[in-house]
Amino acid sequence: MSGGKFNLSLDGWAVALALLLALLVRLNIVPKIPW
Amino acid sequence: MSTSVAIEPPKSTTLSSRVLSFIPGVTLLAAIGYAGKFIEQSISHYGKSHHLSLPNIEYVLWAILIGLVISNTVRVPELFKAGIATYEFWLKVGIVLLGARFLLGDVIKLGGLSLALVVIELALAIALMTALGRIFKLTPKLTTLLAVGSSICGVSAIIAAKGAIDADDEDSSLAIAAILALGAIAVFTFPFIGHLLGMSNHAYGLWSGLAVDNTAEAVAAGALYSDAAGKIAVLAKTARNAMIGFVVLGYAIYWASKGQAQTVHNKALFLWQKFPKFVLGFLLISLLATLGVFNKEQLGSLGNLSRWAFLLTFAGVGLRTNLREMQKQGLRPFIVGAVGEIVIAAVTLGLVLGADRVFHLS
Fold first, then answer.
1. Which chain B residues contact residue A32 at CB under 8 A?
2. Percent of chain B scoring above 70 in pLDDT
3. For labelling alongside B241, which of A9, B89, B230, B256 has CA 20 to 30 A away?
4. pLDDT tens digit string along B141-174?
């Protein structure tokens, strides 16, 4: 998953997405996630 | 069985078309994972409403089984393959998010204990696989790959080692096939043994993280036992994964000294390149949670997001396990791997049970 302007490794993309999700949850932008 | 662990999108230049190529496969992963969850809940509801005591078969097992049936009967069309290969990506997203469910103090305490056990497990696994490889007359580099795969973290360690020691494609395919086949067997046998021995969630999770090779299978084996065991399995496996660079560096130096691999000039850079960066993400989220950045409800949401990510992973584990492909692989690497894994599983079980007595893990 690398190439172009977004040259990140698989781990880099995974960490980036996880941190983005954490930020969205922290800012209450996403509602409570059920299971 | 696919031997590919990297996401390999079609050769297009734009990010949007790459993302589009993942959609069919990711949708399939989600559908299978959700079907597993639905079946688990339906059986539970049926049992409750009819006052029946039905066995609780976790969604993890259903997701893996559905994936196995699809990949071994109808065969997965090419259109889905790019998306299915993202299962490892979702695994890493899930692990990083799971960091929110650990206080950093617990990570250091349990991670430290895991690391101490990992060092013993590494030494044992490498020595054992090397001896078995010689006895069964495997090529030295295939033996190295099997030793790396069984001692650290399965497929990604084999891929990392392959480049570092200039191993050929056939050897790495054989090693990956053996490690994946043994991982699939471990997913089904470990929970059974754990229940048989009446292991605590902590002890069992630690054992899965130490003894099951591929990260996805280690997490699945832990989650099949219980949620709590799954969490500990992730932590122990993450500690094991963190050692990848040191072991691969050791082998790279060994093969370079024999003139059969390139010399490693900058060892610190080599270690950084091989270090699994998602471990840092896991520690960062754990640090944020420890500092009180998230409230209780938000921590619950992050934990549930992690479970959704793992749901996609478990579906992928089943989908990429192709029994026909496994049968085509040589028997000797599988026997060497199997004998080694059984001994490693038995010794790590002894270590974990000993640690459980001393440290009262539960």
1. 297, 300-301
2. 94
3. B256
4. 888 888 888 887 677 778 778 777 877 777 777 7
- ipTM value of the model? 0.87
Q: Which of A17, A24, A30, A32 to mutate to test the interface with B (most CBs of B within 10 A)?
A: A17
**Domains in chain B, number:** 1
pLDDT digits (tens, 9 = 90+) for B66-106: 998 998 898 888 999 999 999 989 999 999 999 998 888 88
Cross-chain residue pair A11–B284, CB shorter than 8 Å: no
> Domain of A29?
1-35
pLDDT for res B8: 52
DSSP per-residue letters across B266-332: -HHHHHHHHS-THHHHHHHHHHHHHTT-S-HHHHHHHHHHHHHHHHHHHHHHHHT--HHHHHHS-HH
Structurally, chain A folds into a number of domains equal to 1
Enumerate the residues of chain B whose CB falls inside 8 A of the CB of residue A13: 89
Residue B337, both tokens: 């791997």
Question: Closest to A18 (Cβ–Cβ): which among B281, B300, B307?
Answer: B281
CATH number of the domain enclosing B64: 1.20.1530
Question: Looking at chain B, which residue has its C-alpha nearest residue A3?
Answer: B13
What's the CA gap between B337 and B150, in Å, rounded?
8
B353: closest CA of chain A, how far (Å): 32
